[in-house]
Specification:
By secondary structure, this protein is of the alpha/beta class. The protein contains twelve helices and 13 strands. It has a single domain, classed as Rossmann fold (3-Layer(aba) Sandwich).
């Protein structure tokens, strides 16, 4: 039976991918920085995988957790460290869901790619035993954004993408993740709620791409193990997947607890727009290494009328179906469009109203 390693398998998206692979009849090994197996299983159950389902798969041997594996420390030999836990020849693929660690805001000025180097080292090690083992990585639309100067953390993500693309069979770029589990965006809603006092309309008045985590897990399984695996069999593929677009403010409001009372705005009309324009210019200069402030200033900049072109919209994908340079690969559950002579896929999920 096939076995895959899922790096970051206990997280928000990781839970969905682990669940989809287990249901697809494929054995799963998850690595985690948690100190012991019990804590690994607690974390993945917190993101929506029932504990009895986890225990059942462990007993059957289809799920295995390896604790104490820490990426991002600059050690490219981590593949050899994992060898005492796994048989490389039996591993058919790696799914990398982890990102570069947050850089030290006080001292870090250069991009960090240590995590990605370790992932690449692990993939190369496994391919020595199985040259057909694939590597799949997840990226963010923010890696394509060119409307702002990059902070060290953002620069690290961009640099990591270029590094991973050299070895990836499938690199999927997505926007905001929604769905079951606990996400970073959900954790940030309390901070964002306070900012609603400054601006309700302009700070959150721009569109973002989003996708449900379970839809994304289905897409990954389909391309890596399902009927559309042929798409990545002989070339390295870059894919963009979306469920559609939504106003960011509406997305934030939906994530707030039902009992939350939205505060009254302190600024209105022209005063609000003027403040945000000044804020979007001054804040990144004064607090250039504060990642949260940079994100908020980006919100203000984009909501002030800036045209955002760093991701493909659902309507763009639908237009590609009529382009002579593209072809429709699938149009059942998901719409999949590919370049006729290139290496890019564009995917629109079927649950656009979820």
């Amino acid at each position: 039976m096939k076995t895959v390693i899922i790096l970051g398998g206990t997280g928000y998206l990781g839970r969905a991918v682990v669940e989809r692979y287990l249901k697809g009849g494929i054995n799963v090994i998850i690595t985690s920085s948690q100190v012991n197996t019990k804590k690994v299983l607690q974390k993945i159950s917190q993101n929506g995988l029932p504990i009895d389902y986890i225990q059942k798969n462990i007993q059957q041997g289809s799920l295995r957790a390896i604790p104490g594996i820490v990426f991002g420390i600059g050690d490219t030999s981590i593949g050899y460290k994992l060898s005492k836990y796994i048989e490389p020849g039996n591993v058919s693929g790696i799914i990398n869901l982890i990102i570069e660690p947050k850089v030290n805001q006080a001292t870090q000025t250069e991009p960090t790619t240590s995590t990605s180097k370790e992932v690449v080292g692990l993939a190369k090690h496994l391919r020595l035993a199985n040259d057909l083992a694939y590597l799949c990585c997840i990226g963010s639309t923010s890696e394509n954004r060119e409307d702002k100067a990059t902070a060290p953390y953002e620069a690290s993500k961009i640099a990591s993408k270029h590094l991973l693309l050299e070895l990836c069979n499938l690199y999927i770029t997505v926007g905001y993740l929604v769905g079951k589990g606990r996400s970073r965006l959900k954790d940030d809603t309390k901070k964002l709620l306070g900012l609603l006092r400054i601006s309700k309309k302009w700070l959150f008045g721009f569109e973002v791409s989003y996708i449900d985590v379970d839809d994304l897990a289905d897409i990954m399984f389909d391309l890596l193990e399902g009927k559309n695996r042929v798409l990545i069999s002989d070339k390295r593929i870059e894919a963009f997947a979306t469920s559609g677009e939504v106003i960011f403010g509406e997305l934030v409001h939906k994530l707030l607890p039902p009992t939350s009372i939205l505060p009254k705005s302190l600024l209105r009309g022209t005063a609000e727009r003027t403040f945000l324009r000044i804020f979007s210019v001054v804040a990144p200069i004064i607090l250039k290494n504060n990642q949260f402030i940079r994100r908020i200033s980006s919100f203000a900049h984009r909501s002030g009328g800036v045209v955002v072109t760093h991701y493909v919209t659902s309507s763009d994908i639908e237009k590609l179906t009529r382009s002579p340079k593209h072809q429709v690969v699938s149009n059942d559950k998901n719409l999949i469009v590919s370049e006729r002579f290139g290496n890019k896929l564009f995917i629109l999920t079927g649950r656009t109203n979820s």
